[in-house]
Design brief:
The protein is an alpha+beta fold. It folds into five domains: 62 residues, Helix Hairpins; 236 residues, 2-Layer Sandwich (D-amino Acid Aminotransferase, Chain A, domain 1), CATH 3.30.470; 99 residues, Nucleic acid-binding proteins (OB fold (Dihydrolipoamide Acetyltransferase, E2P)), CATH 2.40.50; 146 residues, DNA polymerase, domain 1, CATH 1.10.150.20; 70 residues, BRCT domain (Rossmann fold, 3-Layer(aba) Sandwich), CATH 3.40.50.10190. The strands form six sheets. The chain has a five-stranded mixed sheet. The chain has a five-stranded antiparallel sheet with strand order 14-13-12-15-16, with no helix packed on it. Strand 13 and strand 14 form a beta hairpin. The chain starts with a helix and ends with a helix. It binds adenosine monophosphate (AMP) and zinc ion (ZN).
Amino acid sequence: MSQSILEKIEALRAELHQHNFDYYVEDNATVSDFEFDLKLKQLQDLEKNYPQFYDPNSPTLRVGGEITKNFPTIHHQFRMYSLDNSYDFDDLEDWEKRIIKTIDEPVEFVAELKYDGASISIFYENGKLKQAVTRGDGFQGDEITANVKTISDIPLKLKGDFPPQFFMRGEIYLTRKNFDKINSLREEEGLDLFMNPRNTASGSLKMQDSAEVRKRGLSAVLYQFISSDTPAETHWELLQDAKKWGFKVSNQAKLCKNLDEIKDFITFWDEHRHELPFEIDGIVLKVNSIKQQSQLGYTAKSPRWAMAYKFKAEKVETELVTVTYQVGRTGAITPVANLKPVLLAGTIVKRASLHNEDIIKKLGLHDHDFVFVEKGGEIIPKIVGINLEKRDANSQEIEYITNCPECGTELVRIEDQAIHFCPNDLHCPPQVVGRMIHYVSRKALDIEGLGAETIEQLYRAKLVENPADFYILTKEQLLPLERMAEKSAQNILDGVENSKQIPYEKVLFGIGIKHVGETVAKKLAKNFNSIDDLKNATAEELIQVEDIGGKIAESIVNFFQNPENILMIERLKSYGVQLEKGENTNEVLSSILENKTFLFTGKLSLFTREAAEEMVEKHGGKNISAVSKNLNYLIVGEKAGSKLKKAQDIGSIQILDEQEFLDLIKE
Ligand code: AMP
Ligand code: ZN
């Protein structure tokens, strides 16, 4: 008996640890919050009833996952606790009863929205933002000050009568509008789309380049003042004070005198949450009096004075019409369930993702089944179950396709992967288009004016089929296209012309040899002076190059065995595209900057940032992306901002203007 309980506890712990890892470290949730919380609760109950199986590392005692290495780890002076969850009003009544047992005076509450983003702790000293740290595992998190400073909702300097030292906690999130904007840009560039605003927000906070963070358009709200010496008696007053000091505090927070007012608040927002411009996944309730809060204290995992109320993921039933299959730009196949339109979480849903063959099999989906559809944090809802009572006895189980719906080629499924691919990368339409989109993208040939949509149009009009065709486009061919004016057509022609100056290594990346990413392309360019040298290299020779393994070598050899690729390359050469090392690639001019690191900031006027970084490399120096003690030189242009300040604070960094940088090289 107790053996099987222990097994159950251990299985739950292992599963929750994995989900935590997926969620916090990989930023890639694999189960819905609701499922996760149910499992956690199951485990909590078992642990309570069987205290002999206590484990200090149980997921019930930890908030989240491990620490990612890229940012310095900071110990939280005040632990960042998790919140206990409740799912119905009974849970809330129990909570209130427990409170009343400890506190024998009236208790007030503050009800707040539970923002679905990434939590943050920010330290302010003498009215200035000093340090921002992620929650991490609750005990320690990542220092991401530079990134947080890019978020305009967060004050860098306070006003009014603020305490000299304190922490503000809050949530960083993305509005739905900005999330959609990011995804449409990514679609333009042919990149994978992000799953949901929450993961995108927390992923953005861990980007290396804070300028990129800024572009994400993150929002923030602050909801908790923390200090050992609290200047007010209630949480509510602290929120009002924080607002006066310049913090963005939620406008929806409400002071509630009793449970009934709390229930009204919850009911209201459960119904109206889809009208908010951002996502919330519940309500947070906090005991208002700071004195009562400290009387109630904390459990191993969460404050007793606070409680989250989680909204149920909304679920509806609808009929499956068909299953269709989309072919991505890399040839990956995604099955999609087309549904009878149904209202779910404020939007009309017509499609649900089925992910892959295994998931369809696991569901046991039949044609015209009635399915339950749930919307978690993801933009595309998913099928979570089937109403078997409504199944037609004559219905057939859905059979996964064997051939590509776009080109008819037999699909392959790579061992150990759940996903099917169409192997016809040279002639399968979405893949042909994907390859051209890759060729013009910013990190490759950077052809401005040629977006994904234009390329699709050109392909449909049979004007382009591979990157070489861009170079023979004429204005007469472009003008009849949709939404194409004289100016945009000229823009494209200029962009194509300018791409002939793009260095060899970027062209190598752009022609889309499988497994040859940016870094590998650079290495190849360094070791093989021209594409002809690369073409003639054997797999054995290729493997000699640092970082190039058997898989990449094989893919390169295969690429050059295909006559169509050879023809494309010969054509690119004839149009003047850089297919060998030119004057402006990789050559070493001096080693004068050896072992020195550089960073450029602000608006440069004597040269572009790219050219400057190239100069650094040619003289043996190294470009790095952030100000730290490892930085030797910061070169500042006009309007340099936080980087300059940070460099001055560190003190050991030499700060130069553009002319001084040039002088340094001249020496
Ligand atoms: P959980 O992640 O389910 O343990 O819930 C705790 C998290 O809720 C905190 O770490 C915060 O990131 C988040 N949260 C969102 N809104 C609030 C709020 N108004 N007050 C406190 N925590 C909040
Ligand atoms: Zn195909």
